[in-house]
Fold this sequence. Notes:
- The protein has 184 residues and is an alpha+beta fold.
- It has 5 helices and 6 strands.
Amino acid sequence: MDKVFDKTKERMEKCLDSLDRDFQTIRAGRANPKILNNVTVEYYGTPTPLNQLAGISVPEPRLLTVQPYDASILKDIEKAINMADIGINPQNDGKVIRLTFPQLTEEHRKTLVKDVSKRGEEAKVAIRNVRRDAIDDLKKLKKNNEITEDDLKDGEKEVQNITDNYIKQVDDMSKKKEQEILSI
C-alpha cells in the first residue's frame, strides 16, 4: 500500500510543478527573468537556452536587461526573444537588450486572473485523476487478496487526505499568483 501512496504523492507533486511552470510564464506587469526560461537561441548551430548565453538582470521593477556573454550574438538573442512571442518587444542598444514590461490595464489583469483560475482548476482535475488511479490500484490489491477490506477503507481515506493536501496547495498557489497580478 505504501507504494501506492508514494506513487500518488509523486504524481501529484508533478502536477504542482507543472502548474508552477505555467504560472511563471504569465506576465504580471513586473519584470520576471523566468519569463525567458523557454527562450532558446541558435548558437553555432545548436539551440541553446538564453540563460546560458547571457546574464539576465532586473535593474528596475518593470525592466529586464539581457547582457550576452558574447556580443556577436546580440542580434540572434533579439530575434529569439521576438520569436518566443512573450508580448514584449526587445530594445537593442548594441550592448544590452532591454525588455520593458508595460503597466497592465484593469481589463488585462482580470483576463490574467481568469487564466490563473482556469489553470488552477486544470491542475485540480489532474490531481483528482491521480486520486482515482490510486483508488483503482488499491481496489486491485483488494481483489488480489493482498489487502483486507479494512485496509482498503484506510487506504482510500489516506489517498483522500493526500489529495486534499495537494488541492489546498493548488488553491494557495493560485491565490498567490492572483494577488501578484492584482497588486501592481
